[in-house]
Design brief:
- The protein contains five helices and seven strands, in the order E-H-H-H-E-E-E-H-E-H-E-E.
- A hairpin with a 2-residue loop joins strand 2 and strand 3.
- The longest helix is centred in the N-terminal third of the chain and has 16 residues.
Length: 169
């Protein structure tokens, strides 16, 4: 699969199985060794095809990244969920399929916002990532993201630091 033409479109219920497969591979690749094993397994298993289909049917702002008409990743954008930060939009999840991380699939949502009948408010965009996830932090920095806040998140008995990266859109 090449990344010559990367398209973004709204997710459809029929995409649920492919999104679940990308989620499974991407989360295991990104978080194995960071999030405790049992907690990571629970997080991945919770989001099977039925979970994704329900999210799509509820109107989640979920889009898929397509390479040659195959689902190569998914992205979920919306309004900023961290009300203490003065940014309009938020990137909740940006996950290309692991074999396609690196050649530009994950950059596509930053070049053009995903199609959405309710786009995020204009202004800044903020994305949170685990501080120890060097691949994600490097990706956000390479795209011009600036660290603007820190926090923590609990995963079972382990507390992990996270960093917010922001962009001017």
């Amino acid at each position: 699969m090449t990344t010559g033409l990367i398209e973004i479109r709204r997710a459809k219920a029929a995409d649920a199985s492919a999104i679940a497969a990308v989620h499974d591979a991407a989360w295991r690749g990104a978080y194995r060794g960071l999030i405790p094993g049992l907690e990571l397994e629970r997080m991945v298993e919770r989001r099977g095809p039925r979970w994704w289909e329900a999210a799509i049917r509820r109107g989640s702002r979920l889009s898929v990244l397509l390479v040659r008409d195959e689902i190569a990743g998914y992205v979920n954008f919306g309004g900023n969920r961290t009300k203490s930060l003065p940014y309009g939009g938020g990137g909740f999840e940006i996950y290309p399929h692991p074999p396609l991380q690196g050649p530009g699939v994950g950059q596509r949502p930053f070049a053009a916002p995903p199609p959405d009948p309710q786009p995020p408010p204009p202004g800044w965009l903020v994305v949170w990532g685990l501080a120890d996830n060097e691949n994600a932090a490097g990706f956000y920095r390479a795209l011009g993201g600036q660290p603007v806040a820190t926090s923590t998140e609990q995963f079972g008995t382990k507390t992990l630091d996270k960093t917010a990266f922001a962009w001017q859109r």
